[in-house]
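Reopening this one. Same input as before:
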Amino acid sequence: MIKFFRKIRHQLLSENKFSKYLVYAIGEIVLVVIGILIALGINNWNSERLLKKAAHQNLKVLSINIEKDINQLQKSISFMDSAISYADKLNNTFQGNNSINKKTIFYLLELVIETNFDLNTNTLEALNQRGEFNSLDEKLQQQIATYYSSLQKVIEREKISNDFIKMELQPYLIKNYSYALLNRANPWPTLQEYLKNDQREVQTINKSYFMKDTSLEGLVFARFYQIKYQKEAYELAIDTGNRLLKILDILH
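Same output, byte for byte:
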């Protein structure tokens, strides 16, 4: 093909037909440009096709991650339901509706257990780093962003609770109730194992002191509402995750 065009150029020049040669040269340039544009278009189309294919595979992994997230969040909600119940029992004890018993300390100990959601953003980061995220439908992008935003709120809410436990509730219990916390009669499994060989006399909560301990009552009350807000964050994340899963299921 190149020899053919070269032959035409030589023929036009030898015949001294410069104007025709000029028109021909321009036409040849146009053909070359068109060829380059077609080649670029094919390359871009192929790159976009590969990008969407890779994004599709990552969306499958994302679905699996979301299902694991939801399972983890549901377990956290179950724990929050128990914690709400324990806080409610303690509040009723302060109000004189429940009597102090061996489970009272157990309830307090359950309120100092921290929760930490294990956030996995590997797939989202892979989508962003390779440019696959921008190839997705705009509504899907928005839904994915909303989901991870809800998980971030979960982590923020957990941090508020965990900081309160470490800085307020736990130190107060250790300072004022360690005598009742550290005994083999405590129903908390961790302490029972730790103190299984303890020969000291079992000490129970001083009922008179406990009922007048308004500082502890305030801490339990605060913890009660922290847990409720935490549960709401979990529920919102689950709802957002389920809506995203439905969209991803349609795409698959």
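So the earlier flakiness isn't reproducible anymore. For the record, The chain has a mean pLDDT of 82.
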